[in-house]
Amino acid sequence: MSSLSTMALLLMLLDGTASAGDTAKHYHIPAQPLSNALLQFAEDSKLELIVKAEKLHGFNSVGLDGNMTFAQALSKLLQGSGMTYRFVDAKTVTVEQPDANFRKTANVEEVPEPQSSSDTTLPKVTVEADAETDPYDPTNTNDPYNKSYAVTNSSTSTKTDTPIMETPASIQVVPKSVMHDQQAFRLEDVIKNVSGVQTQHSFGGDYETFIMRGFKLSEANYHNGIRIPATKFDLANVERVEVLKGTSAMLYGLGDPGGFISTVTKQPSSTPYYSIEQRFGSYDHYRTEASATGPLSKEHGLNYRMDLSYLDANSFRDGIDRDRIFFAPTLSWDVTPDTKLTLMYEHFDENNSYDSGT
Question: Which of 138, 169, 273, 338 is the most exposed place for a label (fewest CB within 10 A)?
């Protein structure tokens, strides 16, 4: 078999005459690289074929097997390559280069030949496939396998599950995936992701206080929509932290003009999930987290969740240490498709040295 030159393919075989019309000829050209298939076609057809060789690189042809005209044969050989052909005269045909944006077909080492040499019609092919599904629903923030950073809805501003884009207020939400990836275990670690909010450390470091839009947050701590006096949380059972900027007295009553911070806890899931995590850090920092959730009774819609954490850490200053134990069991009951009853208990016990500074 002749090889292609680097610049052009020019086959001039003048034995006999050829016509681009309705003349039919029997071809048997196996599947192979397109350049070799065109060489054999030109030889069998007694045609002069002109094409730039480098334009054929990387393309394959399914071959020919059956009776067909020159035009039919060329169309089949060039199928999938984006190439077009044009008869200059009865014995000369040019193959034009494809459009620059046309995507090349994949290289195939070997393609089986058709079983019948007399039938040029391919057999019927049926392709079946299931729709590809994600391992989690990105809109379900309570899914324990959801690792998405995107949160589309929030209930803090309107006390209803409303898309953030349709909420007439400034809201920023930090989901659990961000907190996990940043290894955050204090609220002040999470608030660093929110614009317009600064941490104001209290005397001795006993509490976490914040300044939002220039106002100190004194009455602005909510936990699952309920105002609580505590300003120190453990994030082991926190699903997301929502920050509402601006006044909210119409829905929440007494509050600060700068806004408020709301923590939303993880809920029991019917999808079983278990995890344990151990962290190590500077100054003898050790933190253990564990969580478990799943169904107690699928028939009755009973689900449970247990989150716990233990912290033992020292400081760069001698004599300053911190011990914390936290656990939060939660039980939920799907009374009806639209009604859910949730019972939750949180235990937070921390012993830390009072650090008054130097």
Answer: 338
